[in-house]
Amino acid sequence: MKKIFFYILISSISFCVFSNNDNEIRSVIHLLDYVSNDYDGAVKDGKVISQQEYGELTEFNNKLLVKSHDIQLDTYSELNYQLTKFHSLVHNKANVDSVKNTGFLCKSLIIAKTGFVSYPSKWFDLESAKTLYITHCAKCHGQDGTGNGIEGVGLQPPPRNFHEIERIQGISPSNAYNTIRLGIEGTGMKGFATLSDEEVWNLSFYILSIHHAKTNPQDLNKKRQKFIDKISLEELAESSDKMLMTKFGITNQEDLASLRLLIPSFDKKQYLDIAKSLLAKAYSAYLSKNYKEAENKGVMAYLEGIEPVELQIKSLQPNLVASLEKEMMQVRKNISDRVDNDVLMKSIEKAKIEIDKAAILLNSEKKSAWWTFFMSFTIIIREAMEAMLILVILINLVRSANATQATKWINIGWISAILMGVVAWFFSEKLVSVGMGKIEIFEGIVSVIAVILVLYIGFWMHSHTEINKWKLFVNEKIGKLIESGNYKGLAVLSFIVVGREVFESVLFLTAISANKSTSGNNQIPIILGSLASVLTVIIIAYIFIRISKNIPIRKLLRYSSFVLGFLAIILVGKAAHSFQETGYLSIHSLPFNYKNDILGIFPTLETILFQLFVFVLVFVFLFIVTSKAKPSIVKSKL
To answer: Is the pLDDT of residue 335 over 80?
Structure first.
């Protein structure tokens, strides 16, 4: 079925010459769903059993063809044929199965032809939805969903009773979304245009969970484990209870309830489903010539859907991360280059293939507590080394000038950054909900600030490698600083360089915590791995400080300036990459696909050019400018 669907999808792209307004398309799908779902309440065995219901369905059936023509859906011959067939079946009072099956095929063809996205980009939140329901829905549908709300009295037709099992089991969350968003013309059900997409999706899943609310919650989570790796968010949104029962052979209420009620906050499939959903939205926006929105969705597909699980994938199959990044980047480049629709679709399909590989990889692996410990340990070690080198250089600098009070401020800075990371960990779910795009922008800005500060200190150090200049600085500058105690700038610098790495570490650890270890609670190995890595970094830093203690000041300053120059090159590469991921910097891929996060090397022209610029800047200053500068005219500041 999927192969047929994708064949239809790809073959129909070249005929996309119609207006792709989301609300108009949603309206057509809504009419299809409404007529299909309510048909068995109006017609049975070729006879009308409710004249009022059939009259309403006939009216909607006629509007369906008119709306389809208005947005040029009938320009596609196969879709036009099926829409006309659907209209004829309803008009001739055909059997229920024929109407429902044709309606479903029409809907599939519309989605394929338009790129319309009919599922959410993130898993639903039933707790939030309950509050929304009480605020917006209970006054008509009743607090318990039985349709007995005060404002629903006397309405014709009456508000839907969400406990009418036979009717409700034929409705999918996608059907419910369209009804909540658009309303039903001629009834008391008005559309909720002011609610966000996320709120409407939450409500859509919630109203289909109401009749499961009395199910005994004991062991539901265990039951859901049978399905978690077998169904995507897209399938769950598109499937009615009856469809789920058929797909999984469900015969009991508990199994069905487990799918409708228990959705984990941070399931690893969630992120990959988000990526696929946002890619589909990017394509839909592109067809509408809303290129800015398409670019935004393309960027978010990577940030919100791939990056949170990137480290998990890398730990299992590093090559897959490289190919996944390459395909996702190609999608963004194609959108930016305004390629033909079919070219963009092919690149999206390639990206989806890699995403599916990642999903299979993640779902097939069960991680032990030792794996979680090791990953937590290596993440922080990797992130901390740059910051540690900068801190060691700063501490050596102030110690060589006998400014012992300054060391205290440096320590205050990095300890504050770690404490910030601990607080961020407890709010990591809220942090991730802010959006990886905003987080990447923040990281990019912090990286640029760090580059400027690191270059400034490195150049300053190199300009004071002459012993006479250093003595002059110690006597005139450091002495005044000691008297005033003005070392807060050092605290800020150490906070920035450590805070950046701590912030990124928290995000990676949050992704790892989404993968439940075979031993159950994986928070303990994460905490132990983090503590072990922090202790290891402190020990390494102490060894570095001890080793460099007896190095002559001239060599210490010179070596330190070179190290800081090298770190600046790494940081600027990471900063450029962050802005590329958020769409603020263009992407031009290089012929090679080498990537090294530790060295800040990424296979794009922009990141390499920025690194070359900083390299030239460092080289010119360290080897040319300072060597030609006269001692009498070189002034210094800290």
So the answer is: yes
Note down the domain range covering 592: 369-633
Report how far residue 548's alpha carbon sits from residue 145's, in angstroms, rounded to the nearest whole number: 72
Do 397 and 256 lie in one domain? The reply is no
Contacts made by residues 79-86, CB under 8 angstroms, sequence distance 24+: 79/106, 79/109, 79/110, 79/113, 82/106, 82/109, 86/32, 86/35, 86/61
- Give a three-class secondary structure readout of 174-205: HHHHHHHHHECCCCCCECCCCCCHHHHHHHHH
Neighbours of 318 (CB within 10 A): 10
250 and 395 fall within a common domain? no
For 293-318, the pLDDT digits (tens) are: 888 888 888 877 887 777 677 766 77
Taking the C-alpha atoms of residue 270 and residue 228, their distance in angstroms, rounded to an integer, is 10
Instruction: Dihedral sign for Cα 81, 87, 93, 96, please.
Output: positive
Domain-located, residue 66: no
Q: Are 74 and 83 in contact (CB under 8 A)?
A: yes
Residues 341 and 287 sit within 8 Å (Cβ to Cβ): yes
Residue 11 domain flag: no
* Region 368-376 average pLDDT: 72
Above pLDDT 70, what percent of the chain? 73
Does residue 224 lie in a domain region?
yes
**Structural domains in the chain (count):** 2
pLDDT tens track for 2-49: 333 333 333 333 333 333 457 788 888 888 888 888 888 888 888 888
Residues 531 and 403 both lie in one domain: yes
CA separation for the pair 434, 338 (Å, rounded): 29
Residues 379 and 500 in one domain: yes
The two tokens of residue 503 are 């912030």
- Using the predicted structure, report yes or no on whether residue 605 has a pLDDT greater than 70: yes
Structural contact between residues 261 and 236, judged by C-beta atoms closer than 8 angstroms? no
Q: Which of 322, 328, 303 is nearest to 444 (CA)?
A: 303
Look at residues 261, 289, 320 and tell me which one is the last residue of a structural domain: 261
Domain end position, chosen among 227, 261, 295: 261
Nearest to 605 by CA among 585, 590, 584: 590
CATH of the domain at 146: 1.10.760
Q: What is the mean pLDDT of residues 52-65?
A: 87
Give the torsion sign (CA, 12, 16, 18, 19): positive
Both 243 and 376 in one domain: the answer is no
Structure confidence by residue, pLDDT tens digits, 425-444:
776 555 554 445 455 566 66
Asked if the structure places residue 51 within a domain, the reply is no
